[in-house]
Amino acid sequence: MSDKVRVLIVDDSAFMRSVLTRLISASDDFEIVGTGVNGQEAVDKVKELKPDVVTLDIEMPVKTGIEALSEIVSSDNPVPCVMISSLTEEGAQATLEALELGAVDFIPKALGDASRNILRQAGIIQEKLKAAVSVRKRHMRPTTPVRAPSAATSQAPASPATPARPEAKAAPRLTTETPTPVQKRLSTKTGRPKSPKIIVVGSSTGGPKALQEFIPFLPANLSVPVVVAQHMPANFTGPMANRLNAKSGLNVQEAQHGDVLKPGNVYIAQGGKHLRVVQKSGQYILSIDEDNGESHYMPSVSVLAKSVSDVLGGDAIAVMLTGMGTDGADGFTELKGKGAYIIAQDEQTSVVYGMPKAVAEACKVNEILPLNEIAQAVVDVL
């Protein structure tokens, strides 16, 4: 019996089917078990060939990739799907919809981009397909719709699929004179937070979906700003910020160079560039720059975290969500060394337990939690 990853490639472009076949077959770890030219063939061939993973183009005749994905992931035997998307605004919106429906990841074609052209991404494609195969079936289910909290309250009904939203309240400050319930709760944890002035969030594979199950559950009157580095190309982070903003009581926006950090605002790092927090004239502002050899991830979680460490020391809460690779481990370790409070998503609820695991192994994190408990844990620390 072969141990190779069995791949079904579905794309209406003969050229793209040929390209993907060549790039994936370059590794002996994979076997192309079939190809298809439209969404209906994708659904039919998944049942017939039982592949380990499917690559799905988004725009296809007869049945679109989104329609095919919906059927595949909602079947009795869902198969992980990786979307092949364009870098256009329409492509970004469709890709984000696919990720919400249960696609594990996506690969941009970027034929006009020399650095990200799919023809040069064989290693990344193979890595993403292997990661997709390891995903548990429960992660291939659609995200439960989230209702945006009002400005006065962030309380939503709890259900098995929807975490309870923390109450909107002024964030309590810890004192050494009078023990509080928060201090009591933390007494069994490792370390103790200082006075957090910012929340730093890192994520990659599975991150867009995880962020939808985290950001909207933070209280609408959050007393600190939130900065997020999600591995994504340009043109994708703006639409993602807009989708999060529509579901959240917080103001969620794509970060812009020179933005002054404000409480209750969430700043999503621009795709393809690094986001840093700097101090100027007594204010904390955002700086957006090209890579200077720090990381091949852009935006990089470590670059963002280290910038926070430089200007705020340990006055931060750092949250690592699901993701492939180790980006963020160095930055979070530096923050932890200065007293920051570190929370990592647990393996059970992570789509890919790479980045949370790397952080947990690199430093003594304060808490390792399932995704639906992280928002409340952040509120408890503030």
Characterize the structure shown.
It is a single chain. The chain is of the alpha/beta class and 382 residues long. The protein has two domains: 5-140, Response regulator (Rossmann fold, 3-Layer(aba) Sandwich), CATH 3.40.50.2300; 181-381, Methylesterase CheB, C-terminal domain (Rossmann fold), CATH 3.40.50.180. 31% of the residues lie in helices and 19% in strands. It has helices at residues 14-25, 39-49, 65-73, 89-101, 122-133, 181-186, 207-212, 237-247, 301-312, 329-337, 355-362, 371-381, and strands at 5-10, 30-36, 53-57, 81-85, 105-108, 199-203, 226-230, 251-254, 265-268, 274-280, 283-289, 317-320, 341-345, 367-369. A seven-stranded parallel beta sheet has the order 8-9-7-6-12-13-14, sandwiched between helices. A hairpin with a 2-residue loop joins strand 10 and strand 11 (283-289). The relative contact order is 0.10. Mean pLDDT is 86; it is low at 145-188.
